[in-house]
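Sequence only, no structure available. Ideas?
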Amino acid sequence: MPNATGGVLLACDGPAIKQFILKLDEDRRAASQAPSFVLRDLDERTLLLRDDEPALVEFVKAKLDELQSANAYERSDVDVQSAPPEKGHGPRKKSRKDG
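Reply:
I predicted one. C-alpha cells follow.
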C-alpha cells in the first residue's frame, strides 16, 4: 500500500541552493536536536519539506533571503572617472600595436 506524505515541494534553481538547504537542516538538527525538516531528497534540484509547522517554511525562506542578500552586488555611487586609480592600475602605456 503506498504511503502519502504531505509537504512543500521545493524546486531549487541549482544544486548549490539545494545543498545550502540540506546544510541548513543538518546544522539546525545538530544545534537543537530538532527533527529534520527535509522529508525527501528527490533529485539534484528538488526537496520535499515538512509543512506541519508553518514556521519551518518561513525559516527556510528567511535563510534563503539572507543568503541572497549576502551575495548580492550593490552598485557604488562612486564616480569611476574621478576615482583615483588603484595601486598598480595607472594609465595604460601605448604599445607599438596601439600606434
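Helices lie at 15-32, 54-70.
Hope that gets you unstuck.
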